[in-house]
């Protein structure tokens, strides 16, 4: 129980690595840790919906369905679609050059993905939850990074903006009200600042890559850092065996970190 402590969860991006965050959710449920805010970027934005719904079982089944293998042509209505799974933004001299490239991209059709989101995520449940929910995305049209809470997202457009947060350039450009968006991790790989904005006292940061992270700029906030100590998977594809391993590892790492946390959560 969190007596008088406002707890936030910040979920980082990493594509198929996101299975790790499902294991962390299992640990949070078993330890009965309550949280008041969940924010995510890229795949973290999609996983954040499972945290809002507190639905570990459904999330696990989703990850084990092979849905997150973006090299699976079943995600595309056109099996002849081609795309570059390792687009390096550094090779473009400016954002205008990248936009020209991207707008001519013959990548994965996102419509089946959006429909799948609609089948598994109930927008009204998220909106009616007392838990704050936020995502990041980048508006390519306006050249503007966006941090959006559920109250900022137009009603009926929740699924579109969750996809916008996950929209790697491997997908065909998909407009939302005439504007184009990209994966939020292009500017915010771990949206801790959004949980700070909601005045959380403790923030559990769930990263998907090993190595250290500088949390020094977040003053007067307790950060509990959960991250793997080894490589998880590629961004776009992971075998079913690897997904199961990542879920288990996320659970084990979270149990170890949370049990050893000195903060009473």
Could you tell me the mean pLDDT?
88
Instruction: Determine the fraction of residues in helical runs and give it as a percent range.
Output: 25-40%
Broad shape: globular
Helical stretch tally: 9
Largest sheet: 8 strands, mixed
Q: What are the segments in which pLDDT stays under 50 over at least 5 consecutive residues?
A: 72-86
Proportion in β-strands = 15-25%
Helices and strands, with pairings:
Layout: E1 7-11, H1 19-30, E2 37-41, H2 43-53, H3 56-63, H4 95-103, H5 111-120, H6 123-128, E3 132-139, E4 144-149, H7 158-166, E5 175-176, E6 179-183, H8 192-197, E7 202-206, E8 222-226, H9 240-259
Parallel strand pairs: 1-2, 1-7, 2-3, 7-8
Antiparallel strand pairs: 3-4, 3-6, 5-6
Helix pairs in contact: 1-3, 1-9, 2-7
Provide a descriptive summary of the structure in words.
The protein contains 9 helices and 8 strands. With 265 residues, it is of the alpha/beta class. Strands 1, 2, 3, 4, 5, 6, 7 and 8 form an 8-stranded mixed sheet that branches. Helix 1 (19-30) packs antiparallel against helix 3, helix 1 packs across helix 9 and helix 2 (43-53) crosses helix 7 (158-166). The longest helix is centred in the last third of the chain and has 20 residues, at 240-259. It is globular and about 50 Å long. The termini are close together. 40% of the residues are buried.
Which descriptors would you attach to this protein?
about 260 residues; alpha/beta; 8-stranded mixed beta sheet; 9 helices; 8 strands; about 15% strand
């Amino acid at each position: 129980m969190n007596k008088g402590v406002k707890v936030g969860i910040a979920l980082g991006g990493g594509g198929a690595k996101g299975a790790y965050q499902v294991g962390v959710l299992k640990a949070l449920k078993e330890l009965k840790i309550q949280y008041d805010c969940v924010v995510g970027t890229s795949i973290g934005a999609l996983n954040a919906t499972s945290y809002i719904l507190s639905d570990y079982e459904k999330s696990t089944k989703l990850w084990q369905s092979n849905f997150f293998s973006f090299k699976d042509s079943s995600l595309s209505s056109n099996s002849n679609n081609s795309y570059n799974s390792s687009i390096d933004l550094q090779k473009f001299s400016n954002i205008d050059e990248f936009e020209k490239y991207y707008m001519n991209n013959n990548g994965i059709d996102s419509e089946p993905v959006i429909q799948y989101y609609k089948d598994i995520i109930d927008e009204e449940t998220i909106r009616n939850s007392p838990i704050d929910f936020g995502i990041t995305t980048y508006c390519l049209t306006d050249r503007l990074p966006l941090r959006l809470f559920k109250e900022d997202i137009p009603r009926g457009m929740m699924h579109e903006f969750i996809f916008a947060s996950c929209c790697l350039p491997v997908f065909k450009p998909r407009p939302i009200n005439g504007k184009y968006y990209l994966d939020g991790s292009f500017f915010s790989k771990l949206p801790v600042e959004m949980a700070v904005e909601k005045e959380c006292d403790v923030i559990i940061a769930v990263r998907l890559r090993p190595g250290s992270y500088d949390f020094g700029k977040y003053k007067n906030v307790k950060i509990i850092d959960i991250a793997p100590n080894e490589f998880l998977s590629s961004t776009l594809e992971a075998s079913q065996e690897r997904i199961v391993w990542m879920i288990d590892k996320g659970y084990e790492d979270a149990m170890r970190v949370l049990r050893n946390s000195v903060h009473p959560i």
